From TrEMBL:
SMART domains: Flavin_Reduct. InterPro entries: Flavin_Rdtase-like_dom, NADH-dep_flavin_reductase, Split_barrel_FMN-bd. Residues 19-163 form the Flavin reductase like domain. It comes from Corynebacterium pollutisoli. GO terms for molecular function: FMN binding; riboflavin reductase (NADPH) activity. Belongs to the non-flavoprotein flavin reductase family. The keyword Isomerase does not apply. It comes from the Bacteria. This is Flavin reductase family protein. Keywords: Oxidoreductase.
Amino acid sequence: MTLTVADLTVTGDQLRAAVGTFPSGVTVVTTLKEDGSDVGLTVSAFSSLSLEPAMVVLAVDNGSTSLPYLTVGAPLGISVLADGQGPVAYQFSRRGVDRFAGVDTHRGGRGVALLDGAAAWFAGEIVHAYPGGDHTILTVAVHDCGTHESARPLLYQRGQVHDWPEYQI
């Protein structure tokens, strides 16, 4: 028997509530437009994929205004936000604003912006893009990465970001 979408009875609200109990990190994903200007967005659906070769995976909402720039072969920067960078997460999730305004960055591989003060960072290239319901799944070959050992990651749970002091596991 093959399961079809029609067989699924879980609503989006039910899934959001259940999945939302699982805390995750928060990233800002960046790439470049054809003219060299920066594009960035907040992504919480991020994970390691492979150690050999080094790859990560992320999922981007199909309604994202940044998605058209996230194409196979495009350079990609991923900054894992650190404790205290909640306002940055919200800034990169808003539409109609300069998401990079007031945010300090440095350049990673192929010129992508990486956020200063992030707990970790990755620079790479999009290898595959797959449909995934209302999201697009991107696999990324990692060419370079690093961490700030003393930084603790910003956490996302139940639709909100949490700094470590206020969040007890």
